[in-house]
Specification:
single chain, about 950 residues, alpha/beta, Rossmann fold, 5 domains, ten-stranded mixed beta sheet, 27 strands, about 15% strand, binds S-adenosylmethionine, MmeI_Mtase, MmeI_C, EC 2.1.1.72, site-specific DNA-methyltransferase (adenine-specific), site-specific DNA-methyltransferase (adenine-specific) activity
Length: about 950
C-alpha cells in the first residue's frame, strides 16, 4: 500500500533544506546508477523484522560512504539528532526517527521542527518498523508504505545517489485541473465578450478579474472566507442564464474592498474586507459578461479543492492559459524547486542556517538572527509569476518558525511576541513585463503567505489572519531593461539585498526589434559588444546594481554565457566593476515542460563584491572548493581564451575542410557514383570518398570528382564528368562575387583545396551538447573532408585519442561557443589553444592502442550511424568502455591522481594554459 500524504494546509509543498552537494574532498565511491541502487535496496525488502540497522543499510544502498555511515552509527558528532536514543540524523542528508506511536503524526510534527530547519536534511523519515513515512523536503513529496516493500519505493530516495527527481506534476491534479477549467472559463468569456481584448484596458481588466477569482476560490477553501462562501453566493444570488453574474461579481469585489459591513449590501455583508490592492476598484476596469455555461463553469471551479494548489507552479500554468499559443503546454510542468534553491541556498539560506546552528542555544544570537532575516530583501528583476520570490519567502518563513520554536524552548515568553511574521512580503521585489504575470505574482505571494500562516498555526496554535491585506507587494510591471532597478528596490549599499531569478533567454535570432533596442540602451557607454546574449543584460544591470554594496546576485542563465566568445565579451566588464563569482553551478538541465523535454542547459552564476569567504563550484551533486572562479566557471585566474593561429602545444596544424562551391556538381551521391563507375570504370581514378559533418555523423556515403591539372582534360572524355565540370563552370560564372567568378577558370577543382593525401582527423563543426563525446573521425588518405568540418592532416592515432578524450571534451565545452543546444567547435579557439603536456614515445604508443580500440569497436557496430552510437542513452557498452580507457589514460597524463569531475580537469587545463602562454610570452620577449 502506498499513501500520498498532504500536510495540514493541504499543500504538497516544498520544505526547507536541500540535497546538499557532496564535498569533493569527502571520500566517495563511484556513482551508482539506477539499476545498481535497485539491486542494492532489494535485500532490504521482505525481512521478518527490522531495527535501526534499516536506516544504515538504506544509506549504504544509495552509495553513502561506508565510513560516514559507521560514524553515524557509532554516535559520533556526525549524528546530530536531538534525541539519539530514537533518532539518527546527518546534516543535509537525513532525519530519521523510530516510534511506537503514529508515524504520520510524528512526521508532521518533525518536518517543521527546529531540528529539521537547523540541519536541512533532504529526507525526514519516521517508522514504527511496520510502516515507513517520509518526506522529500526539497520537492515536498511525501510517501508512506509497508517497510517490507522498500524495494518498490526505492526511487523516492534517489536524490541521495545524486539522481534528482524530475518533478513531473501532471499528477498534481489540483493545479492542472484548476488551470484547465480556468482555461475553459477564459474561452467561454472570450466568446461571450467579442472585442474585449481590444478595448483600451481590456487585457489588464481581464487579468485582474481572473486573479480576483483565483483569490476568492482559494479564500473560501482556506478559512480566509467562510467555507464555500463565494461559490454559494454566486449559486444562490444570480440567474441561471448568467445574465446578471457580471453585476453580481462587481458587487462582490466592491464588498471585498469595503471596510465596514454596514457599508455593504445586506446580502454581501458577510464578505470580509480584503483590500491590499487586489480589489481596489478603478473606473476603467470591467467584469466580462457571463453566459449560462460561463456561470456554470464558475460554480464548478468553486467546487475544486483550491487549498491544494502550489502558488509557485500554478502561477505559470495560469499564465499559460491566457497567453496565446502556450495552452498546449498546460499540465506538462515540472516544479523547479530544486533548481530555484540553487540560487537561494548558497546565496543566503546556507549561511543563515549555519548562523541558526551556531546560535541554537543563545536567546541573544537567535534574536539577532531574527532581526537579520526580517531585514533581508529579495529582488527578482524578471519574476514571471513569482516562483523564485515565493520559494525564497517560504524558506525564510520556515527559518523564522524554527528560530521561534527554539526561542520558545529556551524561554517560553518569546513565542507570544509574534502576532505577525517578521518576514514581510514588502521585502520581496520584482519586475515583470507581462501584465498578467505581475498580477499572478502578487496574488501568489499572498497565497504563499497564507500557507505559511497556516504552517505557523499548526506549530504554535496561533492564527495570523491574512486579511485585510496590509501589504501591497513590490512587484512592478515594466521593462527591466529600461527601469532603473534602484527605483524599484533602493540599494543604500548596506542593506542585505539578494537578486535572484531566471531572466529571459532569447537567442539573437529570436529577439524582437524592441529587445534589440533594449540591449543597445543598456550597453550604451559600457563599451560592451552587441553580440552578447540578451540575458547578459540582467548581469550587466545586476552588476551595476550590486557594485560596491552588500547586495549580491545569483541568476540562472543559459550556459552559453560562460562559454567561448560570450565569456570574452562579458566577463572582463564584470571584473572591471570589481566583482567576483562567489559560487557557480556549472551546466544542468532546466526542464520545465514535458513536451520540450530536452530543456535548456543552464548554469547559476553568483556575483558579489570580493571577499575572503570560500568560493565553491557546484557540479552535479559535488561541491568543489575554488580559489577563484573565472568566466568559464572553472577554478582559475580571470583570463579569456582568444583566437590563436597555430597550435600552442605542438599538435599538427588544423584547418577547415575543403570547400567545393560547385553548385552541387562535384559532389556525387552514392547511387549516382555507382552508376558512373559502372558506365565507365575509368571514373574510379577521378573520384574520392567525401564526408562533411552531417555525412559523417549520419553515415551517408558521398563521393567527389577529384581532378587535377594533369588529368582533368582526359577525365572530360567521360561525358558525365564533362557535364558536371561544365555545371561548375556555369555556377561559378554566374556568381556576383569576383573571387568565385575567377574560380570558373578551374571548374574541375574545389574552390578551396585543403585535402592532403594522409590519414586525417575529422572534427564535426557542430555537435549536440547531449553527447558525452563529439564523434570525431579518423580517416584514411582517400577521403576528402568537406568544409562543414575541421580537418587535421598528418594525423597519427594518438592525436585522435587526445581529441576524443574527456579532457579535450571538458576544454571544448568550456571554451567553444554554443549554437542553441550544439557545441560549436573552433580551430582557433579550441584546438589551437588546447594545452598538451610533452608526451613520451611510450605514452603515444599507449594512446595509439586505445585509439585503435575505439575505431575497432565503431567498426564492429558498423550497421549503426555515429549519431546512434554516440547517443548518450544508447551508446553500446563496449564503445563506452573503449572511450573510458582513453579517458583514463589521458587523465593520467594530466594528473597523477586522476579526476572525479570535469571541473577538476578544467582547473588543471587552465593552469597549464596560463603557464604555457606565459612561458611563450617570455620566450617572445627574449627573442
Ligand atoms: C524565464 S522567465 C522566468 C519567470 C519565472 N521565474 C519562471 O520560472 O516562470 C522570464 C520572465 O522574464 C519576463 N521578461 C522578459 N523580458 C522582460 C523584460 N524586458 N523586463 C522584465 N521582464 C521580462 C518574461 O515575461 C518572463 O516572465
Amino acid at each position: 500500500m502506498t499513501r500520498k500524504i498532504m500536510n495540514h494546509s493541504g499543500c504538497e509543498d516544498a520544505q526547507p533544506a536541500s540535497a546538499r552537494p557532496r564535498r569533493i574532498n569527502e571520500r566517495t565511491m563511484a556513482k551508482l546508477n539506477l539499476k545498481a541502487v535497485e539491486e542494492r535496496v532489494a535485500p532490504l525488502a521482505g525481512r521478518e523484522s527490522y531495527d535501526r540497522e534499516f536506516i544504515f543499510d538504506l544509506l549504504l544502498a544509495y552509495g553513502k560512504p561506508k565510513g560516514n555511515v559507521t560514524r553515524l552509527k557509532n554516535g559520533t558528532s556526525l549524528n546530530v539528532a536531538a534525541d539519539p536514543s530514537r533518532e539518527v540524523a546527518q546534516k543535509n542528508v537525513v532525519y530519521f526517527r523510530e516510534t511506537n506511536g503514529d508515524p504520520l503524526a510524528e512526521l508532521e510534527e518533525l518536518r517543521i521542527s527546529a531540528s529539521v530547519v537547523r540541519y536541512g536534511p533532504r529526507f525526514v523519515i519516521v517508522t514504527d518498523y511496520d510502516e515507513v513515512v517520509a518526506i522529500d523536503t526539497q520537492v515536498g513529496e511525501t510517501i508512506g508504505f509497508d517497510i517490507r516493500d522498500i524495494d518498490k519505493h526505492y526511487t523516492f530516495f534517489l536524490p541521495w545517489a545524486g539522481m534528482e527527481k524530475a518533478q513531473y506534476v501532471a499528477e498534481k491534479i489540483a493545479d492542472v485541473k484548476a488551470a484547465e477549467r480556468m482555461g475553459k472559463l477564459f474561452d467561454e468569456l472570450m466568446a461571450a465578450n467579442p472585442g474585449l481584448l481590444e478595448q483600451p484596458n481590456g487585457r489588464h481588466s481581464l487579468n485582474v478579474f481572473f486573479t480576483r477569482l483565483l483569490f476568492c476560490f482559494f479564500a473560501e477553501d482556506t478559512e480566509i472566507f467562510d467555507g464555500s462562501q463565494f461559490t454559494n453566493a454566486v449559486g444562490s444570488h444570480t440567474q441561471v442564464d448568467g445574465s446578471d453574474a457580471a453585476d453580481f461579481l462587481r458587487d462582490v469585489f466592491l464588498a471585498l474592498d469595503t471596510e465596514l459591513a454596514e457599508d455593504k449590501p445586506h446580502h454581501l455583508a458577510a464578505f470580509p474586507y480584503v483590500n491590499g490592492r487586489l480589489f481596489t476598484v478603478t473606473d476603467d476596469e470591467f467584469v466580462p459578461e457571463f453566459t449560462k455555461s460561463a456561470r456554470q463553469l464558475l460554480i464548478e471551479l468553486g467546487n475544486l479543492v483550491w487549498r491544494e494548489i502550489n502558488p509557485d507552479i500554478f502561477g505559470s500554468m495560469f499564465q499559460a492559459i491566457v497567453t496565446p499559443g502556450k495552452r498546449a503546454d498546460l499540465g506538462q510542468h515540472y516544479t523547479s524547486v530544486p533548481n530555484i534553491l540553487k540560487t537561494i541556498e548558497p546565496l543566503f539560506m546556507d549561511e543563515l542556517r549555519d548562523q541558526f546552528d551556531a546560535g541554537f542555544d543563545s536567546v541573544k544570537k537567535l534574536g539577532a538572527l531574527l532581526d537579520r532575516i526580517s531585514e533581508i530583501k529579495v529582488f527578482d528583476p524578471a519574476c514571471g509569476s513569482g516562483n523564485f520570490l515565493i520559494i525564497a519567502y517560504k524558506e525564510l518563513r520556515r527559518l523564522e518558525h524554527g528560530i521561534l520554536e527554539r526561542l520558545f524552548e529556551l524561554d517560553s515568553k518569546h513565542q507570544m511576541l509574534y502576532a505577525e511574521s517578521r518576514i514581510n512580503i514588502e521585502n520581496f521585489y520584482g519586475i515583470e513585463i507581462d501584465d498578467f504575470a505581475v498580477e499572478v505574482a502578487i496574488l501568489s505571494i499572498w497565497i504563499a503567505k497564507h500557507q505559511m500562516n497556516t504552517e505557523f498555526k499548526e506549530k504554535f496554535k496561533l492564527s495570523i489572519p491574512l486579511i485585510p491585506l496590509r501589504e501591497t507587494g513590490q512587484v512592478k510591471a515594466g521593462n527591466a531593461a529600461r527601469i532603473d532597478w534602484t527605483q524599484v528596490c533602493p540599494n543604500d549599499g548596506q542593506s542585505e539585498i539578494y537578486l535572484i531569478g531566471n531572466p529571459p533567454y532569447y537567442g539573437s535570432k529570436l529577439q524582437t526589434a524592441e529587445q534589440k533596442a533594449d540591449y543597445t540602451y543598456v550597453i550604451e557607454n559600457t563599451g560592451l559588444s552587441k553580440n552578447l546574449d540578451y540575458i547578459a543584460l540582467w548581469f550587466i544591470k545586476g552588476a551595476q546594481y550590486i557594485r560596491g554594496s552588500k547586495s549580491e546576485l545569483a541568476f540562472v542563465t543559459t550556459n552559453s554565457l560562460s562559454q567561448g566568445q560570450q565569456v570574452a565579451l562579458l566577463f572582463p566588464f564584470l571584473v572591471s566593476l570589481d566583482l567576483e563569482i562567489g559560487y557557480a553551478y556549472t551546466s544542468f538541465k532546466w526542464t520545465n515542460n514535458a513536451k520540450r523535454n530536452a530543456g535548456v542547459t543552464v548554469s547559476v552564476i553568483n556575483l558579489r563584491v570580493p571577499r575572503v569567504d570560500q568560493k565553491y563550484i557546484y557540479a552535479g551533486d559535488l561541491q568543489i572548493k575554488a580559489t577563484n572562479i573565472n568566466g568559464y566557471l572553472a577554478d582559475g585566474d580571470n583570463f579569456v581564451v582568444t583566437d590563436r593561429r597555430k597550435p600552442l602545444s605542438g599538435l599538427p596544424p588544423i584547418s577547415n575542410g575543403s570547400m567545393p562551391n560547385d553548385g552541387g556538381n562535384l559532389l556525387i551521391k552514392e547511387p549516382a557514383w555507382r552508376d558512373l563507375i559502372e558506365r565507365d570504370p575509368r571514373s574510379t581514378d577521378y573520384t574520392k570518398a567525401f564526408t562533411g559533418t552531417e555525412e559523417f555523423i549520419d553515415g551517408t556515403d558521398k563521393y567527389v570528382l577529384w581532378l587535377t591539372l594533369e588529368n582533368h582534360a582526359v577525365a572530360a572524355e567521360i561525358p558525365e564528368i564533362d557535364r558536371r565540370v561544365r555545371g561548375v563552370l556555369e555556377h561559378r560564372s554566374k556568381s556576383t562575387r569576383l573571387a568565385t567568378k575567377k574560380l570558373a577558370d578551374v571548374p574541375w577543382r574545389f574552390a578551396e583545396v585543403r585535402y592532403r593525401e594522409t590519414n586525417s582527423i575529422l572534427i564535426p563543426r557542430h555537435s549536440s551538447e547531449r553527447r558525452d563525446y563529439i564523434p570525431i573521425g579518423y580517416l584514411g588518405p582517400d577521403t576528402v573532408i568537406g568544409d562543414s568540418a575541421s580537418a587535421v592532416y598528418d594525423a597519427e592515432p594518438w592525436v585522435f585519442a587526445l581529441l576524443t578524450s574527456r579532457v579535450h571534451m571538458a576544454w571544448t565545452r568550456a571554451v567553444a561557443g554554443a549554437l542553441e543546444d550544439r557545441i560549436r567547435y573552433s580551430n582557433t579557439i579550441v584546438y589551437n589553444n588546447f594545452p598538451v603536456p610533452p608526451l613520451s614515445g611510450t605514452v603515444k604508443e599507449k594512446l595509439t592502442v586505445a585509439a585503435l580500440r575505439v575505431l575497432d569497436v565503431r567498426e564492429y557496430h558498423c550497421e549503426k550511424t555515429l549519431a546512434e552510437l554516440y547517443d548518450p542513452d544508447k551508446m553500446p557498452a563496449d564503445l563506452r568502455a573503449a572511450h573510458t580507457a582513453i579517458d583514463e589514460l589521458v587523465d593520467s597524463i594530466y594528473s597523477k591522481s586522476g579526476y572525479e569531475t570535469d571541473e577538476q580537469r578544467l582547473s588543471d587545463l587552465f593552469g597549464m594554459y596560463e603557464a604555457m602562454t606565459a612561458a611563450e610570452a617570455l620566450k617572445g620577449k627574449k627573442k
